[in-house]
Amino acid sequence: MNNFSKLKDLVMSLEDDFSKFYDKNNAAAGTRVRKGMQELKTMAQAFRTEVQNTKNAGAATAAPAAKKAAPAKKAAPAAKAAPAKKAAAKK
């Protein structure tokens, strides 16, 4: 949960800058917001990678339980042939 705390702290630290940028039109605050959002993006990607690696490591160490085989796919129905054209009737 330490990562979650870091994430919350970063978001909360940006609150004042968001307010200054949107409410007071402070351009420097906008720069800080963009920088903070980039840090948030980088942090989020690192957390995603960590979660994925932890999940995969757990799956690799778990005993392979009786896995169900995927059901076989049914064959697609055959396409219907176009009806044959009738010969023109003689008049």
From TrEMBL:
Span list, region Disordered: 55-91
Biased composition (Low complexity): 59-91
Organism superkingdom: Bacteria
Family: Belongs to the histone H1/H5 family. HCT subfamily.
Record function comment: Might have a role analogous to that of eukaryotic histone proteins.
Protein name: Histone H1
